[in-house]
Amino acid sequence: MKHSTRLLAMGAIAATAIALAGCSSGGSSSSSTDSATSGALTPVKLQLQWYSQAQFAGYYAALDQGYYKDEGLDVSILEGAADIVPIDTLTSGQADYAISWVPKVLGSIEQGAAVTDVAQIFERSGTTQISMKSAGITTPADLKGKTVGSWGYGNEWELFAGMQKAGVGVGDISLVSQAFDMNGFLAGDIQAAQAMTYNEYAQVLETVNPATGKLYQPSDLNVIDWNTAGTAMLQDAVWADSTRLADDPAYADTTVKFIKASIKGWAYARDNPEEAAKIVTASGSQLGESHQLWMTNEVNKLIWPSENGVGMINQNEWDQTVSIAKGTKNETGATIITSDPPATAFSNEYVTKALDELKAEGVDVNGTSFKPITVTLKEGGK
User: Fold this and answer.
1) CATH superfamily of 127-229
2) What's this model's pTM, rounded to 2 decimal places?
3) Which of 167, 194, 231, 236 could form a disulfide with 122 if both were Cys (CB 3.0 to 4.6 A apart)?
């Protein structure tokens, strides 16, 4: 199955992986016991599911602020790309952890990948279907008979589940293969387009409305939120190698440390969104300054507040994701999976330990008082 989230037209980024190391060049954490004991840092590689952007602000912040180093880890962040499947990188041993959406990985697990969701960072879905107010599309039922865009590559399942819940089959719409931008929507070729709250939605709001000569406004658009529609699926999670977790105590210990530092990075991004956006920009992201800050703010909304602590996998949300993965059919009649995933598909063991340590250190892992900031977008996201 192909990778996960999408990109603002990022142009040509030559490198598909960058190493952002705290001290050394990275490597496998499974042979790290001696080095950790002697005071050296344990090398760890994290595979992202897309290019550098504020969708991953917490990891970049943890690296920049020295949180990984504080836990004895030398973390290298590997960028994703359209041809990189994070779980394949993980299972092939080229990375120690990977960031990916749960439904995509469920398919890989059914095909034999031995991986475990050890920290569910995003608690809410950022996927929406947006349309111009003039199209009159306010509910999934309104998609019937409309031209509907979808990126595909495993990003379509919330849309299809929402439609089918409303009695709209894939054959009842004109399904368009949507590029990873909003050009088709803005040109009028797509009536209802897929858009992440933190990326493509902002792309529209960064564009001049020819009817007014000013940037499009939220009041110009209708948004179908799959969280509200009841077909949201779990998205960005930290995945680990199931076999290594079971067989290698050093790797299991490193997993707790990695989760702990990462959550601390996300808490930093919550409390310092402007600084976090700048950290991601400095990592080499090609997105504009206002767009990057918008993304940081919107991603924070998907994480905070967290009732049980960031990273804890909610059983009801997991079950909903699995149910949709088993019961929703795409345009070919296929489903993501045909049976329930194994018990090893997720575990709260490691994140619980990480959260306990963070709480003991006085880190706010719930963000109950979190309030998003107001971001003013500029034309082109500059």
Assistant:
1) Periplasmic binding protein-like II (3.40.190.10)
2) 0.90
3) 236
